[in-house]
Amino acid sequence: MADAVLRQALDRAVDLARRGPARDPNPRVGCVLLAPDGSVVAEGAHRGAGTPHAETAALAAAGDAARGATAVVTLEPCTHHGRTPPCATALVEAGVSAVVYAVPDVTAAGGGAQVLAAGGVDVRREPHPGAEDLVADWARAACLGRPHVTWKIASTLDGRVAAADGTSRWITSPQARSAAHTLRSRVGAVLVGTGTAHADDPGLTARDDDGMLAPDQPLRVVVGTRDLPVGSQLAAAVAAVADAAAGRRPADHDADDPRPGEVVHLRTHDPAEVLADLRARGVHGVLLEGGPTLGGAFWRAGLVDELLVHLAPALLGAGPHAIPDLGIGTIADAARLELVEVTTLGPDLQLRLRPTTPAQED
Ligand SMILES: NC(=O)c1ccc[n+]([C@@H]2O[C@H](COP(=O)([O-])OP(=O)(O)OC[C@H]3O[C@@H](n4cnc5c(N)ncnc54)[C@H](OP(=O)(O)O)[C@@H]3O)[C@@H](O)[C@H]2O)c1
Fold this sequence. Notes:
five-stranded mixed sheet; 13 strands; Cytidine Deaminase, domain 2; elongated; eight-stranded mixed sheet; Dihydrofolate Reductase, subunit A; binds NADP nicotinamide-adenine-dinucleotide phosphate; single chain; 362 residues; alpha/beta
């Protein structure tokens, strides 16, 4: 089949996959079945855990027309016996003659392609950046066995995250804050400790430069044993959901408009427990927005995968430090990081860093 036809079918499969839920234990997948002349026989997309996989949905829609077809799929067909039968086996049994997939399944180690080839199906990979983007977070979380964690810090040049009186709005520029909102719209959950919930009354929504809600909103998660502050934005969001559920007041939004993410309050101090809870909710990526106490707890637990520092050309000379005591007493034990990327955000610097092994003596 012509490469242009396959590429067009892959583009379509990616569009179909995007309709699936971003926050789900399963990856988003789309599938297009093509007849030998290149015409579309059927399409399918995965709609979330417990529903049919994209390939099974397309096969069901195609019926007997699946025989001899080429299945174009965004992700290598699975071999798992879960709530739905393995897709690789279903494709073989339906009599498809070829499978073209864009991204290998990191959880299957080539198993899907092997089952297909053993069943006499012509299998090949056709890389597609859009398909890779769709499952990047899911694949990273699958390899880690938990959500990927980015700790984001907005700090002055002297490493302060707030002034001596507790005020921290705004340390960084509008450009840096705009970038932070974009980051929020790309993760499954945004996390703060109760200390930040009390000090800053954050909304933790993702907004555009006009203050409008972005289409994709993260779960808003507060960690700590204290109650949410009375009258705060996060407490009001919880109360509004409870009121709407009890019929005490109507939901005040159009069903098609973006809504702020659900607020989840986890009354624990255990970072691993937090990530296990979020994983069960289908979260693949977490933006940890502080404060220093919660960030430090994740760091000490070895659960920070990336540090994103928005460094403002400002000095405070006093106020809370970005990084709390990590129990490091001597220079040889300094926590070292690899500088992955430096960009400017207006007058601020954005440093992207990854933890490396502890420092070695020169
Ligand atoms: N510039 C920035 O990037 C930035 C970002 C966020 C915050 N801030 C600033 O940071 C300050 C707040 O700092 P913070 O450190 O108090 O905030 P925090 O880290 O958000 O919250 C600390 C609280 O989280 C709870 N907690 C959860 N897990 C914990 C653990 N493993 N160990 C200990 N406590 C745990 C505890 O409260 P419970 O008693 O309720 O359990 C603790 O008091 C404010 O001034 C705020 O403006 C700055």
